Description:
Blueprint: H1 67-81, H2 93-96
Amino acid sequence: MFYGIQDYDKNCPRVHLVMEKGDTVFFHPLLIHGSGWNRTQGYRKAISCHFAGADCHYIDVKGTSQEITERDYLPIGKKLYGFPDDTRLQVCFSEMIG
């Protein structure tokens, strides 16, 4: 999902990457990046990794710009993973690793 960029300057310089089949590229999470439509017969693979310290905690997104993201992602989580209706955007890492 893409929500746009506030105050985006279309004159900002861009770097275009020409990729070959099998190429890999890594982006810093703060770097604005994206791509056009996949015009090949193949498909793209993407991996997104996020790390958090053991002392991280839940921040209620109500009333913030992230509230829209929560509203958009919770139905997906409910459909794919059976999240209950009262779920907040929160992950327990011990449940992920088994």
